[in-house]
Design a protein that fits this description.
By secondary structure, the protein is α+β, with helices and mostly antiparallel strands. It has one domain: outer membrane lipoprotein receptor (LolB), chain A (Clam), CATH 2.50.20. Helices cover 15% and strands 47% of the residues. It is built from one helix and twelve strands. The chain has a twelve-stranded mixed sheet, with helices on one face. The longest helix has 31 residues.
Length: 203
């Protein structure tokens, strides 16, 4: 019985190590990207694998909690965090949705770039797809609006792609291009002035 308990303990330690190592590696990669900017192409698939929408635009990130997604096509939407609030601006609907940054962590998968203790939020494993290494992050909480996300980096530790699976099994694939990392970005870049005659919705 004592030997069986010892074997089970060793097995659990090995399992925990296998999960801890990818989480540690991913945290190290994310910590290297204190700031970055570039362009992106986004493709949304339904749960049958059919393309629903394609979009592209510009993205800017800066730790500890600043980011800006500027969609150019097909719609000119904006998602901006000024460090305290997150603004989702839809010019076609003439409305902006405002949420506190701390309350948006469960709904915005891109906030993984700001997580320090990633193992507290995700179970991280690695997988190889067409010879490329992806970090698979399974959400520990059931309160998130997405089920999992995956990240891929290049040989210079720059983020190349992000894949999100939502609770309905839809998939969002974001490919990053022309990424510049660890550059100086003024925090004024993330200020958002609500346009006139726009409906404000507060979450």
């Amino acid at each position: 019985m004592k030997n069986l308990f010892l074997l089970l303990t060793i097995a659990l330690i090995k399992i925990n190590f296998l999960f801890a190592q990818p989480a540690s590696d991913l945290s190290e990669l994310l910590n290297k990207n204190e700031s970055f900017q570039g362009s992106f192409n986004q493709i949304v698939y339904d749960n049958q694998g059919q393309v629903i929408e394609e979009a592209n635009g510009k993205v800017v990130f800066k730790k500890p909690h600043f980011f800006k997604w500027i969609y150019k096509k097909p719609h000119q939407n904006q998602i901006i965090s000024d460090g305290e609030l997150i603004y989702i601006y839809d010019p076609d609907l003439s409305q902006v949705i405002m949420s506190e940054f701390s309350q948006s962590k469960s709904s915005n998968p891109s906030l993984i770039f700001f997580q320090k203790n990633i193992e507290n939020f995700f179970k991280v494993t690695t997988k190889s797809i067409d010879g490329e290494l992806w970090y698979h992050c399974q959400s520990i909480s059931d309160n998130t609006e997405y089920e999992s996300l995956e990240l891929k980096f290049d040989s210079q530790d720059k983020v190349l792609a992000m894949k999100i699976i939502d609770r309905l099994k839809n998939k969002i694939l974001v490919n990053f291009e022309d990424i510049q990392t660890s550059i100086k970005i003024n925090e004024a870049t993330f200020l958002f002035n609500v346009p006139e005659n726009v409906e404000i919705i507060k979450n």
